[in-house]
Amino acid sequence: MTKPGTVGELRDSGWLDRPVKEELRENLLRRIEAGDDLFPGIVGYDETVVPALERAILAGHDMIVLGERGQAKTRLIRRLVDLLDPETPVVDGCEINDSPFRPVCAHCRHRLADGGDDVPIRWVGRDRRFAEKLATPDTAVADLIGDVDPIRVAEGRYLSDELVIHYGLVPRTHRGIFSINELPDLPPRIQVSLLNVLEERDIQIRGFTVRLPLDLLLVATANPEDYTNRGRIITPLKDRFGSEIRTHYPPTRHDEVTIMRQEAAPPPSTVPVSVPGFLEEIVAEFTHQVRSSGHVNQRSGVSVRLSIANLETLVASAVRRAARLGESEAVPRMTDLVACLQSTYGRVEFEGFEEGREEEILRRLLALAVVEVFRERLAGFDFQPVLAFFEAGGVVETGDLVPATDVRVGEVDVTPLLVRLGLRGESPGDAAAAVEFALEGLHLTRRLNKDVADGAVRYGG
Asked: Each residue of 387-410: pLDDT tens digit?
Protein backbone atom coordinates (compact mmCIF):
# COMPACT_ATOMS: atom_id res chain seq x y z
CA MET A 1 0.00 0.00 0.00
CA THR A 2 1.10 3.55 -0.72
CA LYS A 3 1.91 5.37 2.49
CA PRO A 4 0.17 8.69 3.18
CA GLY A 5 2.14 11.67 1.91
CA THR A 6 0.28 14.59 3.52
CA VAL A 7 -1.26 15.35 6.88
CA GLY A 8 -4.74 14.97 5.43
CA GLU A 9 -4.01 11.56 3.93
CA LEU A 10 -2.50 10.47 7.23
CA ARG A 11 -5.62 11.58 9.10
CA ASP A 12 -7.86 9.71 6.68
CA SER A 13 -5.77 6.54 7.04
CA GLY A 14 -6.69 6.28 10.72
CA TRP A 15 -3.08 6.31 11.93
CA LEU A 16 -2.93 6.57 15.71
CA ASP A 17 -0.51 9.07 17.22
CA ARG A 18 0.94 7.69 20.48
CA PRO A 19 3.54 9.01 22.93
CA VAL A 20 6.81 7.15 22.56
CA LYS A 21 6.60 5.47 25.98
CA GLU A 22 3.12 4.19 25.17
CA GLU A 23 4.42 2.95 21.82
CA LEU A 24 7.26 1.07 23.57
CA ARG A 25 4.88 -0.37 26.14
CA GLU A 26 2.38 -1.71 23.60
CA ASN A 27 5.04 -3.16 21.33
CA LEU A 28 6.75 -4.83 24.31
CA LEU A 29 3.50 -6.44 25.46
CA ARG A 30 2.81 -7.64 21.93
CA ARG A 31 6.23 -9.29 21.67
CA ILE A 32 5.95 -10.85 25.12
CA GLU A 33 2.59 -12.37 24.21
CA ALA A 34 4.08 -13.69 20.96
CA GLY A 35 6.97 -15.28 22.83
CA ASP A 36 9.60 -13.35 20.84
CA ASP A 37 13.23 -13.03 21.92
CA LEU A 38 13.16 -9.46 23.20
CA PHE A 39 16.90 -8.83 23.39
CA PRO A 40 18.75 -11.16 21.00
CA GLY A 41 22.48 -11.35 21.61
CA ILE A 42 22.14 -10.48 25.31
CA VAL A 43 23.33 -13.49 27.33
CA GLY A 44 22.90 -14.26 31.04
CA TYR A 45 20.30 -11.57 31.83
CA ASP A 46 17.07 -13.52 31.33
CA GLU A 47 16.32 -13.88 35.05
CA THR A 48 17.81 -10.63 36.32
CA VAL A 49 18.28 -7.63 34.04
CA VAL A 50 15.64 -8.31 31.39
CA PRO A 51 12.71 -8.52 33.85
CA ALA A 52 13.81 -5.24 35.46
CA LEU A 53 14.05 -3.62 32.04
CA GLU A 54 10.59 -4.87 31.07
CA ARG A 55 9.09 -3.45 34.27
CA ALA A 56 10.73 -0.07 33.64
CA ILE A 57 9.32 0.11 30.10
CA LEU A 58 5.83 -0.95 31.21
CA ALA A 59 5.95 1.67 33.95
CA GLY A 60 6.96 4.35 31.45
CA HIS A 61 10.12 5.22 33.37
CA ASP A 62 13.27 6.94 32.24
CA MET A 63 16.05 4.71 33.48
CA ILE A 64 19.69 4.55 34.46
CA VAL A 65 21.63 1.35 33.78
CA LEU A 66 24.39 0.72 36.31
CA GLY A 67 27.20 -1.71 35.65
CA GLU A 68 30.93 -2.25 35.36
CA ARG A 69 32.70 -2.01 32.04
CA GLY A 70 31.99 -4.73 29.51
CA GLN A 71 28.53 -5.68 30.82
CA ALA A 72 26.65 -4.94 27.57
CA LYS A 73 24.99 -1.77 28.88
CA THR A 74 25.20 0.07 25.57
CA ARG A 75 24.12 -2.97 23.57
CA LEU A 76 21.15 -3.47 25.88
CA ILE A 77 20.02 0.12 25.34
CA ARG A 78 20.43 -0.12 21.57
CA ARG A 79 18.15 -3.15 21.53
CA LEU A 80 15.35 -0.93 22.88
CA VAL A 81 15.12 0.54 19.39
CA ASP A 82 13.56 -2.74 18.23
CA LEU A 83 10.52 -1.92 20.38
CA LEU A 84 9.74 1.20 18.34
CA ASP A 85 7.39 1.04 15.36
CA PRO A 86 9.21 0.18 12.10
CA GLU A 87 8.30 3.62 10.68
CA THR A 88 6.56 6.72 11.94
CA PRO A 89 5.35 9.86 10.12
CA VAL A 90 6.91 13.28 10.81
CA VAL A 91 6.39 16.74 9.37
CA ASP A 92 8.61 16.96 6.32
CA GLY A 93 11.59 19.24 6.88
CA CYS A 94 11.26 19.36 10.68
CA GLU A 95 14.52 19.28 12.64
CA ILE A 96 13.03 17.40 15.58
CA ASN A 97 10.78 14.80 13.91
CA ASP A 98 7.60 16.61 14.94
CA SER A 99 4.30 14.77 14.94
CA PRO A 100 1.84 15.92 12.22
CA PHE A 101 -0.89 15.90 14.89
CA ARG A 102 1.09 17.22 17.90
CA PRO A 103 3.58 19.81 16.64
CA VAL A 104 5.77 21.35 19.35
CA CYS A 105 8.32 23.47 17.44
CA ALA A 106 7.38 26.95 16.18
CA HIS A 107 8.27 26.13 12.57
CA CYS A 108 5.84 23.19 12.38
CA ARG A 109 3.08 24.99 14.25
CA HIS A 110 3.23 27.84 11.70
CA ARG A 111 3.34 25.45 8.73
CA LEU A 112 0.37 23.42 9.93
CA ALA A 113 -1.59 26.57 10.73
CA ASP A 114 -1.02 27.88 7.20
CA GLY A 115 -1.03 24.67 5.15
CA GLY A 116 -3.38 22.47 7.15
CA ASP A 117 -3.94 19.01 5.68
CA ASP A 118 -1.79 19.80 2.62
CA VAL A 119 1.46 19.89 4.60
CA PRO A 120 3.71 17.06 3.36
CA ILE A 121 4.97 14.37 5.71
CA ARG A 122 7.76 11.81 5.49
CA TRP A 123 8.28 8.45 7.14
CA VAL A 124 11.35 7.77 9.29
CA GLY A 125 12.65 4.36 10.37
CA ARG A 126 13.16 3.35 13.96
CA ASP A 127 16.94 3.67 13.66
CA ARG A 128 16.53 7.40 12.96
CA ARG A 129 14.68 7.81 16.24
CA PHE A 130 17.62 6.85 18.44
CA ALA A 131 20.63 8.94 19.43
CA GLU A 132 23.38 8.48 21.95
CA LYS A 133 26.06 10.71 23.40
CA LEU A 134 29.18 9.71 25.26
CA ALA A 135 29.43 12.04 28.24
CA THR A 136 32.80 13.76 28.13
CA PRO A 137 34.09 16.67 30.22
CA ASP A 138 34.02 18.96 27.18
CA THR A 139 30.30 18.35 26.50
CA ALA A 140 28.38 21.64 26.40
CA VAL A 141 24.74 22.51 27.01
CA ALA A 142 24.55 23.48 23.35
CA ASP A 143 25.47 19.91 22.37
CA LEU A 144 22.62 18.42 24.37
CA ILE A 145 19.93 21.08 24.46
CA GLY A 146 20.75 23.72 21.83
CA ASP A 147 21.88 27.30 21.38
CA VAL A 148 21.21 30.46 19.39
CA ASP A 149 22.27 30.10 15.75
CA PRO A 150 24.13 33.32 14.79
CA ILE A 151 23.53 32.68 11.09
CA ARG A 152 19.77 32.74 11.61
CA VAL A 153 20.11 35.96 13.58
CA ALA A 154 22.17 37.45 10.74
CA GLU A 155 19.37 36.56 8.34
CA GLY A 156 17.20 39.16 10.07
CA ARG A 157 15.37 37.29 12.83
CA TYR A 158 15.08 38.74 16.33
CA LEU A 159 16.80 37.06 19.28
CA SER A 160 13.38 36.68 20.87
CA ASP A 161 12.22 34.57 17.91
CA GLU A 162 12.14 30.85 18.68
CA LEU A 163 13.19 30.16 15.09
CA VAL A 164 16.76 31.35 15.82
CA ILE A 165 17.38 28.28 17.99
CA HIS A 166 19.64 25.49 16.77
CA TYR A 167 18.46 22.40 18.58
CA GLY A 168 20.84 19.98 20.30
CA LEU A 169 20.80 16.18 20.40
CA VAL A 170 18.03 15.81 22.97
CA PRO A 171 15.36 17.83 21.11
CA ARG A 172 16.41 16.20 17.84
CA THR A 173 15.50 12.85 19.40
CA HIS A 174 11.93 14.04 20.05
CA ARG A 175 9.57 11.05 19.72
CA GLY A 176 12.47 8.65 20.16
CA ILE A 177 15.08 7.27 22.57
CA PHE A 178 18.08 9.26 23.78
CA SER A 179 20.99 7.61 25.59
CA ILE A 180 23.78 9.23 27.59
CA ASN A 181 26.71 6.89 28.20
CA GLU A 182 28.82 7.36 31.36
CA LEU A 183 26.56 10.07 32.78
CA PRO A 184 28.77 10.78 35.84
CA ASP A 185 31.44 12.19 33.54
CA LEU A 186 29.16 15.12 32.68
CA PRO A 187 30.07 18.25 34.70
CA PRO A 188 27.36 19.15 37.26
CA ARG A 189 26.42 22.37 35.43
CA ILE A 190 25.68 20.30 32.31
CA GLN A 191 23.68 17.76 34.30
CA VAL A 192 21.45 20.59 35.50
CA SER A 193 20.33 21.18 31.92
CA LEU A 194 18.69 17.74 31.92
CA LEU A 195 16.48 18.36 34.95
CA ASN A 196 13.58 19.84 32.99
CA VAL A 197 13.92 17.21 30.28
CA LEU A 198 13.32 14.43 32.80
CA GLU A 199 10.55 16.01 34.87
CA GLU A 200 8.76 18.82 33.05
CA ARG A 201 9.64 17.29 29.65
CA ASP A 202 10.64 20.66 28.19
CA ILE A 203 13.88 22.57 27.53
CA GLN A 204 15.31 25.99 28.33
CA ILE A 205 17.84 27.73 26.07
CA ARG A 206 19.77 30.85 27.09
CA GLY A 207 16.86 32.37 29.01
CA PHE A 208 14.36 31.94 26.18
CA THR A 209 10.80 31.39 27.22
CA VAL A 210 10.60 28.26 25.10
CA ARG A 211 7.95 25.68 25.87
CA LEU A 212 9.04 22.61 23.96
CA PRO A 213 7.26 19.61 25.52
CA LEU A 214 9.50 16.76 24.42
CA ASP A 215 8.25 13.21 23.99
CA LEU A 216 11.17 10.84 24.51
CA LEU A 217 12.64 8.06 26.62
CA LEU A 218 15.90 9.05 28.27
CA VAL A 219 18.31 6.29 29.28
CA ALA A 220 21.69 6.76 30.93
CA THR A 221 24.55 4.43 31.85
CA ALA A 222 26.96 4.75 34.74
CA ASN A 223 29.53 2.83 36.72
CA PRO A 224 28.22 1.93 40.21
CA GLU A 225 31.42 3.22 41.79
CA ASP A 226 30.93 6.66 40.23
CA TYR A 227 27.20 6.65 40.89
CA THR A 228 27.11 5.66 44.54
CA ASN A 229 30.43 6.58 46.13
CA ARG A 230 31.93 9.54 44.35
CA GLY A 231 28.52 11.25 44.01
CA ARG A 232 29.21 12.57 40.55
CA ILE A 233 25.56 12.53 39.54
CA ILE A 234 23.76 15.45 41.12
CA THR A 235 21.01 14.46 43.54
CA PRO A 236 18.07 16.15 41.73
CA LEU A 237 19.01 14.31 38.54
CA LYS A 238 19.23 10.93 40.29
CA ASP A 239 15.81 11.54 41.76
CA ARG A 240 14.26 12.05 38.32
CA PHE A 241 15.15 8.62 36.93
CA GLY A 242 12.19 6.31 37.45
CA SER A 243 14.09 3.00 37.41
CA GLU A 244 17.59 1.86 38.23
CA ILE A 245 18.73 -1.31 36.46
CA ARG A 246 21.87 -3.12 37.58
CA THR A 247 23.81 -5.27 35.16
CA HIS A 248 26.39 -7.93 36.04
CA TYR A 249 29.04 -10.14 34.51
CA PRO A 250 28.06 -13.57 33.13
CA PRO A 251 27.11 -15.65 36.19
CA THR A 252 28.25 -18.97 34.71
CA ARG A 253 31.10 -20.24 32.63
CA HIS A 254 28.60 -21.45 30.03
CA ASP A 255 27.27 -17.90 29.58
CA GLU A 256 30.81 -16.57 29.24
CA VAL A 257 31.63 -19.16 26.55
CA THR A 258 28.41 -18.31 24.68
CA ILE A 259 29.36 -14.62 24.62
CA MET A 260 32.92 -15.44 23.51
CA ARG A 261 31.68 -17.50 20.58
CA GLN A 262 29.18 -14.81 19.66
CA GLU A 263 31.54 -11.84 19.81
CA ALA A 264 34.98 -13.15 18.83
CA ALA A 265 36.25 -12.07 15.43
CA PRO A 266 36.02 -14.85 12.83
CA PRO A 267 39.33 -16.63 12.14
CA PRO A 268 41.10 -16.33 8.75
CA SER A 269 39.23 -18.17 6.02
CA THR A 270 42.45 -19.57 4.55
CA VAL A 271 42.99 -22.09 7.37
CA PRO A 272 40.22 -24.23 8.90
CA VAL A 273 40.06 -23.65 12.66
CA SER A 274 38.63 -25.97 15.29
CA VAL A 275 38.67 -24.85 18.94
CA PRO A 276 38.25 -27.68 21.49
CA GLY A 277 35.45 -26.96 23.94
CA PHE A 278 37.63 -27.50 27.01
CA LEU A 279 39.97 -24.71 25.87
CA GLU A 280 37.06 -22.29 25.54
CA GLU A 281 36.04 -23.28 29.07
CA ILE A 282 39.57 -22.66 30.35
CA VAL A 283 39.59 -19.18 28.80
CA ALA A 284 36.22 -18.41 30.42
CA GLU A 285 37.26 -19.88 33.77
CA PHE A 286 40.48 -17.84 33.66
CA THR A 287 38.39 -14.67 33.43
CA HIS A 288 36.24 -15.82 36.36
CA GLN A 289 39.38 -16.50 38.40
CA VAL A 290 40.69 -13.01 37.62
CA ARG A 291 37.34 -11.48 38.65
CA SER A 292 37.46 -13.18 42.03
CA SER A 293 41.15 -12.67 42.77
CA GLY A 294 42.12 -10.48 45.70
CA HIS A 295 45.26 -9.42 43.81
CA VAL A 296 43.18 -7.67 41.14
CA ASN A 297 41.47 -4.32 41.59
CA GLN A 298 37.84 -5.41 41.32
CA ARG A 299 36.47 -1.86 41.46
CA SER A 300 37.65 -1.30 37.89
CA GLY A 301 35.95 -4.51 36.74
CA VAL A 302 37.18 -7.33 34.52
CA SER A 303 35.34 -7.03 31.24
CA VAL A 304 33.95 -9.85 29.11
CA ARG A 305 36.17 -8.32 26.43
CA LEU A 306 39.05 -10.06 28.22
CA SER A 307 37.56 -13.48 27.43
CA ILE A 308 36.86 -12.46 23.85
CA ALA A 309 40.38 -11.13 23.30
CA ASN A 310 41.94 -14.23 24.85
CA LEU A 311 39.91 -16.55 22.62
CA GLU A 312 40.99 -14.54 19.57
CA THR A 313 44.63 -14.72 20.73
CA LEU A 314 44.34 -18.46 21.28
CA VAL A 315 43.04 -18.97 17.74
CA ALA A 316 45.68 -16.63 16.30
CA SER A 317 48.46 -18.64 17.98
CA ALA A 318 47.10 -21.87 16.47
CA VAL A 319 46.77 -20.30 13.00
CA ARG A 320 50.37 -19.03 13.23
CA ARG A 321 51.61 -22.55 14.04
CA ALA A 322 49.59 -24.10 11.22
CA ALA A 323 50.98 -21.56 8.74
CA ARG A 324 54.59 -22.05 9.84
CA LEU A 325 54.41 -25.85 9.89
CA GLY A 326 52.19 -26.26 6.85
CA GLU A 327 49.42 -28.03 8.81
CA SER A 328 46.04 -28.33 7.12
CA GLU A 329 44.06 -27.37 10.23
CA ALA A 330 44.62 -24.97 13.12
CA VAL A 331 43.69 -26.47 16.49
CA PRO A 332 44.61 -24.50 19.64
CA ARG A 333 46.49 -26.41 22.34
CA MET A 334 47.57 -25.82 25.93
CA THR A 335 50.87 -24.31 24.78
CA ASP A 336 48.87 -21.53 23.09
CA LEU A 337 47.40 -20.43 26.42
CA VAL A 338 50.66 -18.70 27.32
CA ALA A 339 49.95 -16.15 24.59
CA CYS A 340 46.74 -15.21 26.42
CA LEU A 341 48.81 -13.70 29.22
CA GLN A 342 49.98 -10.99 26.80
CA SER A 343 46.41 -10.06 25.87
CA THR A 344 45.46 -9.97 29.56
CA TYR A 345 48.03 -7.52 30.98
CA GLY A 346 46.51 -4.35 29.57
CA ARG A 347 42.94 -5.24 30.55
CA VAL A 348 43.49 -5.97 34.24
CA GLU A 349 44.33 -3.49 36.98
CA PHE A 350 46.27 -4.97 39.89
CA GLU A 351 46.33 -3.76 43.46
CA GLY A 352 49.15 -1.34 44.11
CA PHE A 353 51.07 -3.64 46.43
CA GLU A 354 51.32 -6.29 43.68
CA GLU A 355 53.62 -4.24 41.46
CA GLY A 356 56.19 -6.46 39.78
CA ARG A 357 54.26 -9.69 40.42
CA GLU A 358 51.67 -9.33 37.66
CA GLU A 359 52.91 -12.21 35.49
CA GLU A 360 53.28 -14.54 38.45
CA ILE A 361 49.71 -13.79 39.56
CA LEU A 362 48.24 -14.33 36.10
CA ARG A 363 50.11 -17.60 35.62
CA ARG A 364 48.80 -18.85 38.95
CA LEU A 365 45.24 -17.88 38.05
CA LEU A 366 45.57 -19.57 34.65
CA ALA A 367 46.78 -22.74 36.38
CA LEU A 368 43.76 -22.63 38.70
CA ALA A 369 41.49 -22.34 35.67
CA VAL A 370 43.13 -25.35 34.01
CA VAL A 371 42.82 -27.47 37.16
CA GLU A 372 39.15 -26.52 37.56
CA VAL A 373 38.24 -27.57 34.02
CA PHE A 374 40.50 -30.65 34.17
CA ARG A 375 38.75 -31.94 37.28
CA GLU A 376 35.31 -31.33 35.83
CA ARG A 377 36.06 -32.80 32.42
CA LEU A 378 38.21 -35.78 33.39
CA ALA A 379 37.10 -36.70 36.91
CA GLY A 380 37.33 -40.48 37.32
CA PHE A 381 39.12 -41.00 34.01
CA ASP A 382 41.59 -43.92 33.97
CA PHE A 383 45.05 -42.39 33.46
CA GLN A 384 46.89 -45.58 34.41
CA PRO A 385 48.15 -46.36 30.85
CA VAL A 386 49.49 -42.82 30.54
CA LEU A 387 51.14 -42.84 33.96
CA ALA A 388 52.64 -46.27 33.28
CA PHE A 389 54.33 -44.83 30.19
CA PHE A 390 56.03 -42.16 32.29
CA GLU A 391 56.88 -44.57 35.12
CA ALA A 392 58.76 -46.62 32.54
CA GLY A 393 60.91 -43.58 31.76
CA GLY A 394 58.85 -42.16 28.89
CA VAL A 395 59.01 -38.47 27.98
CA VAL A 396 56.69 -36.22 25.95
CA GLU A 397 58.04 -33.02 24.43
CA THR A 398 55.84 -30.33 22.99
CA GLY A 399 55.81 -26.61 22.39
CA ASP A 400 54.38 -23.75 20.40
CA LEU A 401 55.90 -24.90 17.08
CA VAL A 402 55.83 -28.67 17.58
CA PRO A 403 53.70 -30.42 14.92
CA ALA A 404 50.49 -32.04 16.15
CA THR A 405 51.64 -35.46 14.89
CA ASP A 406 54.65 -35.31 17.26
CA VAL A 407 52.56 -34.80 20.38
CA ARG A 408 51.80 -38.34 21.56
CA VAL A 409 52.29 -40.53 24.60
CA GLY A 410 54.37 -43.28 23.05
CA GLU A 411 52.11 -46.05 21.77
CA VAL A 412 49.34 -45.37 24.31
CA ASP A 413 45.88 -45.34 22.71
CA VAL A 414 44.32 -41.93 23.45
CA THR A 415 40.97 -42.75 21.82
CA PRO A 416 39.17 -43.04 25.21
CA LEU A 417 40.50 -39.59 26.11
CA LEU A 418 39.22 -38.10 22.85
CA VAL A 419 35.81 -39.72 23.35
CA ARG A 420 35.61 -38.36 26.91
CA LEU A 421 36.42 -34.84 25.68
CA GLY A 422 34.04 -35.07 22.71
CA LEU A 423 36.78 -34.66 20.08
CA ARG A 424 37.28 -36.21 16.66
CA GLY A 425 39.55 -39.22 16.67
CA GLU A 426 40.78 -38.71 13.11
CA SER A 427 42.17 -35.21 13.68
CA PRO A 428 45.87 -34.99 14.70
CA GLY A 429 45.24 -31.48 16.02
CA ASP A 430 42.45 -32.65 18.32
CA ALA A 431 44.58 -35.57 19.53
CA ALA A 432 47.48 -33.24 20.32
CA ALA A 433 45.17 -30.81 22.12
CA ALA A 434 43.69 -33.63 24.23
CA VAL A 435 47.13 -35.05 25.11
CA GLU A 436 48.49 -31.65 26.17
CA PHE A 437 45.38 -31.00 28.26
CA ALA A 438 45.67 -34.35 30.03
CA LEU A 439 49.41 -33.96 30.67
CA GLU A 440 49.07 -30.39 31.96
CA GLY A 441 46.24 -31.46 34.25
CA LEU A 442 48.29 -34.38 35.58
CA HIS A 443 51.20 -32.02 36.19
CA LEU A 444 49.08 -29.44 38.04
CA THR A 445 47.57 -32.21 40.21
CA ARG A 446 51.14 -33.36 41.03
CA ARG A 447 51.25 -36.61 39.12
CA LEU A 448 53.77 -35.55 36.45
CA ASN A 449 56.86 -33.39 36.30
CA LYS A 450 57.20 -30.57 33.81
CA ASP A 451 60.20 -28.60 32.56
CA VAL A 452 60.01 -25.47 30.43
CA ALA A 453 63.03 -24.03 28.62
CA ASP A 454 63.11 -21.64 25.64
CA GLY A 455 59.48 -22.33 24.79
CA ALA A 456 59.94 -26.12 24.79
CA VAL A 457 57.82 -28.12 27.25
CA ARG A 458 58.95 -31.49 28.56
CA TYR A 459 56.70 -33.82 30.61
CA GLY A 460 58.25 -36.72 32.52
CA GLY A 461 57.66 -39.04 35.46
From this structure: 999 999 999 999 999 999 999 999
